[in-house]
Design a protein that fits this description.
single chain, 354 residues, alpha+beta, H-NOX domain, Arc Repressor Mutant, subunit A, 2 domains, five-stranded mixed β-sheet, two-stranded antiparallel ribbon, 7 strands, 49% helix, 8% strand
Length: 354
């Protein structure tokens, strides 16, 4: 079996792996990438904004990575200052190319209607932010998308609500307008930028962030609805959701990070620490406090994946050993017998005969 390798790269320790009063959990790297891309689109170097947020550019390379919410909040504010644009979040949402929000753009656009798309996004919102509390409320006169957070992130909060609004309009081809928009964070009175984008009055410093619109909007059909593609995307989203840990579980986060990495490369202590945004020694220390190690969790993840893969008749035992990053078939066979007391072929025959 391959071992762990590598020394700490000295990454800044910016947040604990679990939720805390300042960090407030983790966010998908997808939430950070548009801010960097917008700076680059404007011909600005994003490095100073990343440095101000204590983020390394390498942490944004993989879509599987998750970043501390505090760091993403800081990145969006730093990007707005770097651009000299008080409405950076809104304008980034307005101009973001279709598909650049990855899986979530397509889960929305392939849904049959605006309402179906919003409900689907809400059901998978934890993939973007593990402490989300986004809700859709339908009342006689208004449909409301509501969110209330203990710590606001002005630029990022404006980006997320504006992007949802923009995408829903783009997908229908109908220029519907909101009735009212409110944001929790305070800012100078709207100079018309926000009101022009949403097509309605926008209030800041409200008890919660929300957008109100006619319930009939929920019935508008999406031009790109595709039930077959949606089923594929939903299965993928379900698989990703299953890898997410409980919000406050350090061990769960590490397990999920290892499982995500194992689908494309051998997870090392270094790569797992980098995906979680903490130094290797910090990760080792926190796992040791739980009586665990990275190698133990890696072994467990490989075992679970092996059992899952053996249920797929299209994969040979040799293929599975390769997918799990074993150096040769014999190494995989030895590991599997240690895990289960039988060979992979014996397990597969028993699986299909039961």
């Amino acid at each position: 079996m391959q071992g762990e390798a590598g020394k700490s790269q000295g990454a800044p320790e910016i947040v604990a792996l679990g939720a805390d009063s300042k960090g407030l959990g983790s966010v998908s790297v997808i939430a950070a990438k548009p801010a960097v891309a917008e700076l680059e689109r404007r011909g600005l170097d994003p490095a100073p904004a990343l440095a101000e947020a204590h983020l390394m550019a390498a942490a944004l390379e993989s879509f599987d990575n998750r970043l501390p919410h505090a760091a993403v909040r800081a990145l969006w504010e730093a990007a707005a200052r770097r651009a000299g644009d008080a409405w950076f979040g809104l304008r980034t949402a307005r101009d973001l190319p279709a598909g650049d929000y990855d899986l979530f753009d397509y889960l929305l656009s392939t849904s049959a209607t605006v309402g179906a798309g919003i409900k689907r996004l809400i059901s998978y919102a934890r993939l973007i932010y593990d402490h989300t509390n986004l809700r859709l409320l339908i009342e006689p006169g208004d449909a409301r998308i509501v969110r209330r957070v203990p710590v606001t992130a002005p630029q990022y909060d404006e980006f997320t609500l504006a992007l949802l609004f923009v995408r829903c309009r783009e997908n229908t081809g109908v220029a519907w307008k909101a009735h009212q928009v409110t944001f929790q964070h305070a800012r100078e009175p709207d100079d018309g930028t926000a009101a022009q984008l949403f097509g309605c009055p926008v209030t800041f410093g409200a008890p919660q962030t929300e957008i109100r619109f006619a319930p009939s909007v929920l019935e508008l059909p999406h031009a790109g609805a595709d039930s077959k593609l949606l089923r594929i995307l939903t299965r993928h989203a379900d698989a990703l959701l299953a890898t997410l840990p409980a919000p406050d579980s350090t061990v769960g986060r590490v397990r999920a990070a290892i499982t995500r990495q194992a689908t494309r490369e051998f997870p090392t202590l270094r790569s797992t620490a980098a995906s979680l945004g903490v130094p290797e020694r910090t990760l080792q220390r926190r796992l040791a406090a739980e009586g665990l190690s990275h190698s133990t969790l890696l072994d467990e993840a490989r075992r679970e994946l092996a059992l899952r893969y053996l249920g797929n008749a299209a994969l040979s035992v040799t293929d599975i050993g390769y997918l799990l990053h074993f150096s040769d078939p014999a190494s995989f066979h030895r590991a599997f017998r240690r895990w289960t007391g039988e060979s992979p072929l014996e397990y597969r025959r028993r699986f299909y005969s039961s």
